[in-house]
Amino acid sequence: MIHSIEERTDLKGKRVLVRADINVPIQDGKVADSLRIDLALQTIQYITNQGGRVILISHMSDVAGSLAPVAEYLQKKIPLHFLLGVAGPSAQKAAHHLSDGEVLLLENLRHDAREEKNDPEFAKELASLADIYVNDGFPVAHRSHASIVGVPKLLPSYAGFQFFKELNGLTPALSPESPSIAIIGGAKLITKISLIQALLKKYDKVFMGGALANDLYVAKGYEIGKSLVSGTGHATNLLENPKIILPMRVIVSGPLGARETRASEVGKEETISDIAPSSIRELKPFLEKASSTLWNGPMGNFEKGFRQGTDVLAEMIASSPGKKIIGGGDTLSSIQNLGLSEKFTFISSAGGAMLDFLANGTLPGIEALDNRS
Ligand code: ADP
Ligand code: MG
What is its EC number (predicted)? Predict the structure, then answer.
């Protein structure tokens, strides 16, 4: 059982190590998109409002990147000290000098190579800074890093508000109610094959779009011209599965411009760039009665303007009466301007962690919170 930090109302004077995911894009030394930081404030302020003392830790995906711009952003909202180090005596000293209601942000955890190696000594150093551990970084919970799986072995551990939101939002997708459909698109079959295999066990139908469909066209022996494929060799097994729905009409781009055609009639010089809206619309009768819909992955190369398939699909899922759970970094960017966010039951911002959670039913960071004594 995982406990929420909300269960603790005795945090005055306590030092709480909060593992957040405030790995935000930085441009010209400034925070370019503050969403993840703003969301992290809920857990931070839940603790500081009680007079707790927060030691805030996060990574940046750029290993050499600094959290200094994040500190500058946060300093406008909360009493925050920023330490240029990650662990060691300077971190000890700074953590012990915190007053009630204050926050100490440590530097990018990945500056210390022991973080990604899940080094037990590093976990011990982090744990020694605090009395309590909170994981609020669901989007990194698929990583077995020291701050995610090492520290919770050493301290009483809790999930933060964002962590719980993702966990509760995604859990229903693990046990869909019939009629159910999973719609998977995007680029690389190899990164999604274990997810697809897990979904085939639970969902009534699995629709394959985006460049994933190209692998199946190849398995069928179709010419796909210059289209993107992952070449995993897994596609043949999928073809034989009666639950798989493969769209049969596509939008191709080529020397003569873009055209709609059958997937079996793509020219050597052409590139499949989108699933044709007519093929997407074939899902309509199913979506109109679906109890559970899961969607990950754009239907086409939307960054290059091939977004019709994705737009039509997003609208259709949005009007489906059942539960509809969606997620994926590119999936969210692809529907950003459609104004449909309110229509979905849950929108996950956990990216790769979402895919792993749906494939395996759990994540190392979830297990770590669960296995405490
Ligand atoms: P998500 O981040 O939502 O999980 P992915 O990362 O799997 O999604 O895939 C998104 C990428 O897939 C986008 O960059 C999109 O352009 C690309 N894509 C989808 N269909 C095609 C296609 N037919 N050809 C080339 N790229 C495609
Ligand atoms: Mg992506």
Answer: 2.7.2.3
**Under 8 Å between Cβ of 277 and 306:** no
| 372 pLDDT above the threshold of 70 | no
Query: What's the pLDDT score for residue 371?
Result: 61
Give the CA angle between residues 265, 268, 270 to the nearest 5°.
80
Same structural domain, 220 and 309: yes
Structural domain boundaries, residue 111: 5-168+363-370
- Residue 373: the pLDDT is 46
The answer on 195 and 307 residing in a single domain is yes
Gap between the Cα atoms of 266 and 123, Å rounded: 54
Task: Name the nearest CA neighbour of 290 among 329, 318, 258, 257.
Answer: 318
Check pocket membership of 303 for ligand 1, CB cut-off 6 A: yes
What is the chain's mean pLDDT, rounded?
Answer: 96
Mutate to test the pocket of ligand 1, among 194, 251, 330 (most ligand atoms within 8 A of CB): 330
Rounded CA separation 115/120 (Å): 9
Of the ligands numbered here, which is closest to the C-alpha atom of 334?
1
Residue 110 in marked binding region: yes
pTM of the complete model: 0.95
Task: Confirm or reject: Cβ of 334 under 6 Å from ligand 1.
Answer: no
Indicate whether residue 300 lines ligand 1 (CB < 6 A): yes
End-to-end Cα distance, the chain: 11
Spell out the alpha helix ranges (H) of the chain. 35-48, 68-75, 89-96, 120-127, 161-170, 189-202, 212-220, 235-239, 277-281, 284-289, 308-318, 329-335, 352-360, 364-370
Residue 330 assigned to a binding site: yes
Cβ proximity of 160 and 20 under 8 Å: yes
307 annotated as ligand-binding: no
* Strand 157-159 relative to strand 132-135, pairing: parallel
Quick one: which atom of ligand 1 is closest to the CA of 300? 20
